[in-house]
Amino acid sequence: MSSEVRHIHRPARWWTEIKALIPPLGIYWGALLLGLVTFTVTILVVESNDQEDYVILTLFWMVAIGATGAGQVAALAKIRTPWVAMVTVLLFVGFFLAIYYENEFEHYTKAILGKEGPAIVGLSLLLGGFYLMCGLWSLRVHMGVFASWGPLLWVTATILIVSEKRDNDIYWHEGQKWAIWDWVTVPILLAGVAFLVLFLASKERYRLHRWAFSPKGPDSPLSQRVRGRFNPIAGCGTLLVIGVLTAVLTADSGIVAPYLWRTGPGDREGGNGNQNMPDGDMGEPDEPNGGGDPIPAEPEPGEGDPDLQQMMEQLKKAAQQTTGAICMMIGMLLLAVAALIVFGPPLRRALLVQHLRRPLWPVPPTRAVQQNWRLVEIALADAGFPRQPGESATSLAHRALKQIDIHDEPLLRSAELTDRVVYGYGMNPDDRALSKRAAEMAYQAVYELLTEAQRVKAQYRWL
Known about the structure:
By secondary structure, the protein is mainly α. The protein has 2 domains: 3-217 and 230-264 and 275-280, no CATH class; 343-459, no CATH class. The protein has helices spanning 3-46, 51-76, 81-100, 102-113, 117-137, 144-147, 149-165, 168-173, 185-213, 221-226, 236-260, 306-357, 365-382, 393-401, 408-422, 431-448, 452-459. The longest helix is centred in the last third of the chain and has 52 residues, at 306-357. The chain is elongated, with a radius of gyration of 32 Å. The relative contact order is 0.06.
C-alpha cells in the first residue's frame, strides 16, 4: 500500500478509534463528576459550610479532575505504567515526609499558601498520585476494576457521611448491620454498582474493538464491519443482562458489605450492654454514674482533645515507620534497576547467543536453520545493518555485502538456506549442518570487523 493510500485511510481509522473510546471515557467521567457532585452536596448540607469546607471541596475537584486527566493523557501518549507509577510513589513519599516533618511542613506551607496551605499540599500529594493511576488505568486493558476506585471513593464517602448524620451507625454498632441502608444510601449504592458494571462492559467492548481492528486481529475486519457483522451498539438483551447484573450485585453488596467493616469485640456478643459503644471501646464498661451516662473527663485548658492528640501521635508514628519502609523499598528498587541496566542486556545477549549456537532444548531442523540465521542477524545489526520489516534473508545479505568486505560465501549460503525454509522450498538432509557451519563462519567474520567501541555498544543493545 502506498503512502498516499495510508494517508487517506489514517483519519478514518483515527475517527474509528475515537468513537470506540467515547463510551468508556464518557461513563468514567460521568461517574467521577456525579460522585464529586453527590459528595459536595452532602458536605454542604451536613457540615457548617465555613470557608475551610469550600477550600477543601474545591481542592478535591481540582485534584480529582486534574490528576485523572493527566493519567489519561499519559495513557493516550503510550507512556509506560512503571514511569507513571514512579511519579505516584514520589507523591506518596512526599505525603509521608510531610507528616514526618509536621512542624516544618506546616510552617513553610502556611508561609507560602496561607492558613489552608498544609491541607492544600497534603491532599494534593495524597489524592494526586491516587487519581493519576486511576486515570491511567481507565484506558489500560485489564485495569478497569482498579480504575473504578476513583469514582467509587466518593460514593463510599457519601454513604458513610449520610449514615453518620442520620444516626444509622448507632444501630449498626448495636449489631443491626443492615440498618446502615435506607432510602438515601441505597440509591447511592445502586448508582455506584451501575457505574462499575457499565464501565467494565464498555471497557470489554473497547478491548474487543482493539483486537478486531489490530494488525494481528481477524482477517478483513473493515469489510466485516461494513457488512454489519461487527455491531458496536449493545442490543436490548445486553442492556437487560446489565440491568439484572447491576440489581444482583447491588443486593449482594448491600447484604455483605456491612459485615465486612471492622467492629470491636463486643459487636459479636449481642445484648451484653456494650453494643452502643463506638469501635475500640467495646468490651470495656464505663464507670457508672448513678445509673446514668458516664461523665467524660474534661481536658485541661490548652491541652486540646486528648483523643485527637493521641490519634495524631499514632498517625505520626505510623508515618515515620511507613516513610522508612518506603525509602528502603525505593533504595532496593533503584539498586535492582541499576543492576538490570548494567547486567541485563549483556546477560540476555549471552544466553540468547548460547541458545542459538547450541539450543537449550530440542528444536526441529527448520527452526534450527532459522535460529542459525538469527545469529547472523545479530552480528549484522551490531555492524549497522539491522533487518528491515519484510526484508528477506538474501536481501539483507546483499545489502550488507555492498558495504562490508568479508568472504561472501558463508553469508550468502546461510541466507539462501534460510529463505528456502521460510518460503517452503524444503530442506536436504545435510542442510541443517551446512546452515550451522555457514552461520558460525559469517558471525565470526562480521564480528571481527567491529571496533572495541562497537563491541561494547553491541553488548548493551537489547535483543
